[in-house]
């Protein structure tokens, strides 16, 4: 390398500069190996030039240092023991990046602005320095700068600065090219990973099919914590805990199996299709986390869900693609369990239907089938019937499955089965404690209201011993259910709650009830229909309000004198004296029975 005289303006032949630029451009185009390109750039910057050494530094603001990436220096200027990073507070690299213009140090050995450069310049024996920002960052997000050093003091010309700027632009191109190549490689690798995951998942589904074997594969591919909910078996599969929750993985699994399960289940059941694109805030205990989720549905019924708890930069398009593939694989697993449970419910429903019809319940084959399905009822059992308040709303298999899951959490001996769009529940009498009764009522009300939008009616029927007594017990529950709807009662109800009404209805057969109703209120109904009057409604409200004239008139929205006229009209036309207690009871009962039959 030709020595350069001190304190004189130095320029380089155009041919030499073009040769350097060709070397750098050739290196940029020849490979995508960024370290090799940067090594070639710092070498070519000094090759046959006025610059003695050169280097590329990265500004690491997290550590507060300008860190050496690569350097070219002749053997005489190599000192392995000298620092390879410098504080940003005393480094010109920071100013070069912030100002977006070259920083020129005329004599680094005498500068008072950059003390770290002064020490390094004296140790390595260089003088003039130029520091330029490459206007690009590396893969770690660190801004890069190029620094060149001369052996002697020189005057840096505009042409030289233009030359160095050209080199910095080529270096920036190299960095961006390498970053793009790395992104493409990462994209290709992730795409291969998605394809491998799909193949691996479905291979595992076909070979094993166990959820606890498939869920870890999904979490490993997503790189985010997940939870898989299986409503068919009432289980949650969880891996590592979300980063925002300060709990261990074991504590996280316990949380999901306990109080957090209800929150997750509710969110999955209520979440509409979003393709994992919509974030949902979840309050889990004292912490709030953000999740992405999709319900898994079969035949319109939600049978499970996949919940993702994003970390780092969030959910990428690749993550969503993996999640959608995972959801499809999970659907394949859950459909097996769903079909099995649906078949079991169908078997139990058929058994109970035959039992309430009294068809062959004492036959050995029927008894054996009942025992196999868990309905042998070998000891005295408490019978309950669950229904929605609105008789037009039936309880579908989803409600039955949810109720079974929650009641068996309360007590494993609960038996649950479908019967004519209602649910029969049974448990051994000695286990049916007052405390268990309260917990049961709360769980049933919550599920029925959630599934149907209506309050629940829970009929506490008689105690039965054996499946052959189910017919009689079911009939008793139906009578009490009719009374509950007639009196607009909900919650846990017993036949005794309705006093003489329950006794009278149980005493009347199917033919006596219509005759009694027609004889008592039939003529009044026909009269109202013909004349557009409200004598029957007036009588009903008057009886319900214990014959208090003012209260009844207010409820009807009429004057008291109008009320008195209507009551007198009932007596004059039909011979019904509402002042008589027996007459009021008979009329009230007839109107209740008429309401049960679907009348006005």
Task: Give a quick precis of the structure.
By secondary structure, this protein is of the alpha+beta class. The chain is 51% helix and 18% strand.
Q: What does this protein structure show overall?
A:
- This protein has 600 residues and is an alpha+beta fold.
- The protein is 51% helix and 18% strand.
- The strands form 4 sheets. Strands 4-3-2-7-6-5 form a 6-stranded antiparallel sheet.
- Strand 17, helix 13 and strand 18 form a beta-alpha-beta unit.
- Helix 1 packs parallel to helix 5 and helix 6 runs antiparallel to helix 9.
- The longest helix has 50 residues.
- The relative contact order is 0.05.
- The N terminus is likely disordered.
Please give the largest β-sheet: 6 strands, antiparallel
Please give the radius of gyration in angstroms.
43 Å
What proportion strand? 15-25%
Question: What is the SS-derived class?
Answer: alpha+beta
Distance between the termini: 112 Å
Low-confidence stretches: 1-10
* 3D shape: elongated
Give the helix proportion (percent range). Answer: 40-55%
Please count the beta strands (DSSP E, at least 2 residues each).
Answer: 18
Let me know the average pLDDT: 82
Number of helices: 19
What spatial order of strands do you see in the largest sheet? Answer: 4-3-2-7-6-5
């Amino acid at each position: 390398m030709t020595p350069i005289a001190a304190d004189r303006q130095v320029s380089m032949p155009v041919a030499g500069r073009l040769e350097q630029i060709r070397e750098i451009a050739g290196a940029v185009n020849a490979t995508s190996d960024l370290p090799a390109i940067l090594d070639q750039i710092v070498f070519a910057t000094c090759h046959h030039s006025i610059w003695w050494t050169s280097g590329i530094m990265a500004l690491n603001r997290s550590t507060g240092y300008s860190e050496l990436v690569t350097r070219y220096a002749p053997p005489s200027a190599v000192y392995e023991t000298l620092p390879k990073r410098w504080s940003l507070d005393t480094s010109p690299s920071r100013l070069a990046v912030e100002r977006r213009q070259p920083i020129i140090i005329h004599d680094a050995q005498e500068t008072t602005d950059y003390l770290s450069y002064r020490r390094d310049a004296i140790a390595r024996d260089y003088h003039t320095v130029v520091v330029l920002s490459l206007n690009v960052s590396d893969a770690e997000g660190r801004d890069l700068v190029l620094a060149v050093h001369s052996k002697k003091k020189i005057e840096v010309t505009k042409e030289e600065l233009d030359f160095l700027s050209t080199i910095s632009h080529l270096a920036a191109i190299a960095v961006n090219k390498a970053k793009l190549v790395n992104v493409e490689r990462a994209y290709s690798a992730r795409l291969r990973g998605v394809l491998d995951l799909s193949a691996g998942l479905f291979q595992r589904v076909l070979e094993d099919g166990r959820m606890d074997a498939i869920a870890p594969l999904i979490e490993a591919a997503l790189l985010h914590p997940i939870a898989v909910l299986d409503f068919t078996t009432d289980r949650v599969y969880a891996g590592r805990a979300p980063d925002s929750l300060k709990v261990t993985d074991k504590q996280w699994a316990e949380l999901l199996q306990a109080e957090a399960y209800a929150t997750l289940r509710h969110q999955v059941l209520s979440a509409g299709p979003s393709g994992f694109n919509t974030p949902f805030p979840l309050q889990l205990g004292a912490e709030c986390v953000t999740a992405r989720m999709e319900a898994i549905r079969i035949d319109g019924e939600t049978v499970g869900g996949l919940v993702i708890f994003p970390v780092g930069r969030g959910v990428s398009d690749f993550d969503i693609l993996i999640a959608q593939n995972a959801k499809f694989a999970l659907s394949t697993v859950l459909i097996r369990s769903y079909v099995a449970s649906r078949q079991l419910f169908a078997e139990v429903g058929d058994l109970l239907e035959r039992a309430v019809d009294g068809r062959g319940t004492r036959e050995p084959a029927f008894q054996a089938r009942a025992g196999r399905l868990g309905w042998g009822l070998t000891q005295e059992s408490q019978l309950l019937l669950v229904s929605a308040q609105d008789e037009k709303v039936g309880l579908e298999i989803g409600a039955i499955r949810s109720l079974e899951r929650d009641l068996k959490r309360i007590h494993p001996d609960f038996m649950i089965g479908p019967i004519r769009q209602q649910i029969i529940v049974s448990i051994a009498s000695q286990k049916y404690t007052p405390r268990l009764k309260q917990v049961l009522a709360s769980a049933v009300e919550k599920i029925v209201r959630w599934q149907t939008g209506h309050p629940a009616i829970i009929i506490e029927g008689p105690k039965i011993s054996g499946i052959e007594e189910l017919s009689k017990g079911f009939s008793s529950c139906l009578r009490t259910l009719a009374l509950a709807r007639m009196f607009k009662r909900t919650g846990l109800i017993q036949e005794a709650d309705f006093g003489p009404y329950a006794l009278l209805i149980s005493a009347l057969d199917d033919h006596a009830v219509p005759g009694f109703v027609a004889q008592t209120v039939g003529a009044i109904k026909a009269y109202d229909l013909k004349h557009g009057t409200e004598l029957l409604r007036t009588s009903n409200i008057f009886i319900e309000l214990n014959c208090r004239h003012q209260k009844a008139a207010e409820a009807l929205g009429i004057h008291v004198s109008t009320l008195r006229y209507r009551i007198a009209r009932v007596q004059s036309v039909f011979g019904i004296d509402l002042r008589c207690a027996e007459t009021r009871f008979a009329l009230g009962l007839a109107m209740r029975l008429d309401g049960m039959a679907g009348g006005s």
